[in-house]
Amino acid sequence: MMAENPADNRTETPAETLSVAWQKTELARHPKRPYPMEFIQSLFTDFSEIHGDRSFGDDLAMACGMARFHGEQVLVIANVKGRTTKEKVARNFGMPNPEGYRKALRAMKFAEKFGRPVFTFIDLIGANPGLGAEERGQAEAIARNLREMARLRVPILATITGEGGSGGALALAVADQVLMLENAVYSVISPEACASIMWRDASKRALAAAALQTNSESVLRLGCVDAIVPEPQGGAQNDPETAIKFLDEALQQNLSELKKLTTDELVRDRIAKFRNMARFFTEG
Q1: What is the rounded distance in angstroms from the CA atom of residue 164 to the CA atom of residue 28?
Q2: CA distances from 271 to 124, 180, 242 (A)
Q3: pTM for the whole structure
């Protein structure tokens, strides 16, 4: 019989838990990590962008377009951050406005009309919280996306590639299958904002990250995502080609499984999944 290694049964100390939770957050925000549009450019061909919400304008923080995925016509949607300072400012650091969400929904309705699967890619800290966005109906635009995506009659696959934050991320993630890259994070609020509210001290962000359980393993265990996509050693930024290959394989497999379901089954299962999310029971 092999001797048992005490390290195998060792549990992490609270300090280690805090460290790991914050390390994952930093990896998700790594400046060289592939952004959603970079995944799209590598995974899809013949991308033809759709502009404008037909109401206010064209949000540069949101990109939508028809494309081909291994020869099949699909719709792809992603928030766009930009690499340079000029691009970041133009794209509002990847935080969509209500017109961005309305543009995304308009594109999804096109996809539904022509029976094309929808792929969304998410890496944002949240929707734009500015006064102008609120005046133009940010909350309503997000709520409408949640409702309409729940009953969209085509397969939907969402991927959290970096940081998935709050309702701004969820407005693109009401999907049949929600995938999450291994070093991505997904949460209702950023650790800094949570720490500022809970302890009035943003420096306690590591404590907040651990409490929020934002890392992929915790989010999967909680049932908020359906699968974790592995990354190369040290993170996707170290080997983007391998990270893209892993995601490509996961998307192909999941799309193949979803196509076996009828339209009614897709909608039924999607609604049931999100209705049951975050439910809990207590005993007297």
Answers
A1: 9
A2: 24, 20, 33
A3: 0.89
